[in-house]
């Protein structure tokens, strides 16, 4: 798990090798893939 330098994004990896990225300040950027 990691935050971007400006804390706009949160990134986490799963046990299946996928990476998940969430926008924290502008949540309209988040979508389900």
UniProtKB/TrEMBL annotation:
Keywords recorded for this protein, A-Z: WD repeat
PROSITE patterns referenced in this protein's UniProt entry, alphabetically: WD_REPEATS_2
Entry-linked InterPro entries: WD40_repeat_dom_sf, WD40_rpt
UniProt WD repeat ranges: 1-32
Name assigned to this protein: Uncharacterized protein
